[in-house]
Amino acid sequence: MAARKTARTKPAPPKCSACAGDGWVRETHTVGRGRKSRPAGEVEVLCPTCLGSGTPA
Fold this sequence. Notes:
- This protein starts with 23 loop residues before the first strand and ends in an 11-residue tail after the last strand.
- It has 57 residues and is mostly beta strands.
- The radius of gyration is 21 Å and the shape is rod-shaped.
- It is built from no helices and 2 strands.
């Protein structure tokens, strides 16, 4: 009798290091021009490394 085969699971894809697999990163939003530019707050944007997929491209 043949040995029983076990089901192999695929390894999880690596997570993006920039966004930790979330797909979103926080950027500082600035107001003003030139020397008088000042931070006004933070906004969430798509991760430029993985383009929101959560896995590095």
